[in-house]
Input
Amino acid sequence: DNLGDWSSDVCSSDLLTLSISFIHTLMYLFYTCSALKLPFPTFLKKSLTKLQITQFLVGGASESLSSKVQH
Output
């Protein structure tokens, strides 16, 4: 049964890491396009902050719940 707990922690952690990487990739792509005066999709530009905040809140809640379940 401990293996099942470990595997769900790894999946949750991997998903959080993947979401952080995805958001940061979009952010750095936006910064690069801005610096080079290249166009960047308006809908993504407007969504970046919302995506960051959502990812931060979901990640924080996930880690908080994970630490409470382990104790």
The mean pLDDT is 80.
